[in-house]
Structures
1.
Amino acid sequence: MHKIGIDLGGTKIEGILLDEKYNTIQRKRIETHQENGYDSIVKSITSLVSELHGKIAEDVSIGICTPGVINANSGLIKNSNTQCLIGMPLKNDIEQALSHEIVMQNDANCFALAESSLGSAKAYDVVFGVIMGTGVGGGVVINGTLHKGRTNIAGEWGHHTLHPNGNECYCGKQGCVETYISGPALEKRWREITGKKESLQSIVQDFSDEKAKQWKEEFLENFGIGLANVIDILDPDVIVLGGGVSNIPFLYDEGKKAVYDNVFSDSIETPILKNSLGDSAGVFGACLLNI
Ligand SMILES: [Zn+2]
């Protein structure tokens, strides 16, 4: 069967139509316009799906990759950093509008599925896929199958507590991993330490100065403890990193060392790899949800 995958992001919605062999027939990207609210997002998604489906005559499977967590019982979106989706029955509303069944999963699960089937983690059985971007998430794939967990929260290491009285998180807790090592959190911390407003990309160009060293040290420690906790529980065969923060080269040497230093083992060797699908993991993962 042909597959349609939709990746709903904070700034763009991307859609792809694949044939049975995962060849791309059509791909299209539109803007999300969060400011126009929930109904407009639903409308954008359904018209993108209809447009892609219009390219072929036969039926398709439809998978959607969304930010946030989908409550296993109610189907409502919770804990999304695209705030207008919180508490909304997105899956149900899209199915109603399309009169077609869909499968929906969060972006970290789609990322893990895509990288384990088509990307960097292809050679491994137990894969922990990490997204470090606007938020921090994770997904677990075991032998090609997504491990969603009983309550659909497996892999959500971004909301493990790193510092009990630490930074406030939108999820209602304090000190979550996400509030330290997401892109916005890292840029905010840089402003606090140096007084300078800079993008992550420019921050990581130069660590000669003492303040920059302090920022990097804190980042490595938070990254190290956060992922070491994951390894202690899951002990995956590989960890693959995605999202904007995953483009920082030092995560794959110094970052890896910081993780190893905190794992409860003296013979740790878990590979920590960069993704190979880049921005495309979301749409491909969405297509793979139906398998
Ligand atoms: Zn949190």
2.
Amino acid sequence: MAYWNQEIETMDPARLRALQSERLVKLVHYVYENSPFYKKLFDEKGIKPDDIKSIDDIQKLPFTFKKDLRDTYPTGMFCVKNTDLVRIHASSGTTGKPIVVGYTQNDIDNWAESLARGFTSVGLDQDDILQVSYGYGLFTGGLGAHYGSERIGATTIPTSSGNTERQLSLMEDLGVTAVLCTPSYFSYLIEVAEKEGRSLKNNKSLRVGIFGAEPWSESLRHRIEERSGIKAYDVFGTSELSGPLFTECPEQKGMHVWADMFIVEILNPDTMEPVKDGETGELVVTTLLKEALPLIRYRIGDLASVETGVCPCGRTHPRLMRLKGRSDDMIIVRGINVFPGQVESVLMKIPEVSPHFMIIIERNGELDDMTVQVELNDMSSDKVDDYNKLIARISHDLRTVLTLSASIELVNPGTIPRSEGKAKRVIDKRKF
Ligand SMILES: [Zn+2]
């Protein structure tokens, strides 16, 4: 097993916790002294930096929210002067002001270090050629992955998103060994390659995919691995925390969260008390080393679970399990929470169905109606009965998972619009 930073990655859990304590104590003093936002927040809650003596005191600290970042637009939560920043990214907020994230040189270095550990853990090194097909620009995906890739000394190809034909050609011609993009875009690359008779399965160089920026299911992983012959790994991050940060290891059972850099808590959303190891709750993250925009107990809005035992790969850092979905992606239909990822996990277990689908929500009188447009891999059968059986199966499986009935509409291959980045899965026609 190769490690990027073996001493840290396999550090004894007790020592790791002591390191977290030490860094947390430093952090609370740092934010109190350097950010008017945090000083005000601590003062309002009657908390003094000296009250925090170790990680055991973390629950005394107040939470921070996405709303705080919006309310203090653009840089009200920052702890350094703008002239100390070396880079700024911003979220692609469709409504209102974006969230602005700043980085010092150390922040950029730690971000690259975090991904360098992850990329190494999935077996990549300086001999690899990484194609970064995440968007470059204000979005953190492209540049984040780029710096991580360069950090391990890999050859980095910044294709960014889009231009599918060129993506495929470069992949083949340059002997790319790993590709990074959204799982939905990679599904599209597989499809286009197959259509052109150059199936990715025949590409002997390509062996790893690192997919993120949207929640995806275990069943889509199986589908991707089967159809492309690569190993598909999940990556987690969000712009507020830096960008893409944590990947799975070869076990493919959760993404290692580097505990020397971040504290993760999983809390019961009703009581905000910690849940038991492995139980699902709200993900709350504290950044331990960030200088420009440190976040204390930041409530990202994701539901997740964490496993803390030592991983068979030897790493002692906690594993964030596959996310059920982001609260931003959740839709409420007839009072029931629906995550597009749940629909995907059902559909990907059905071989006749392609990875592309669309959820359409309409209001019919007082009631919400949910239709799922399901694209088939092949619609050449002339037996109506086949289609009816398929509709009945999809409808039954979805009802079991969602506890909600949906109308199923089968559509021809290629009907659902393909996305080069984060896939659009929902059209909500309701007017609130
Ligand atoms: Zn592991």
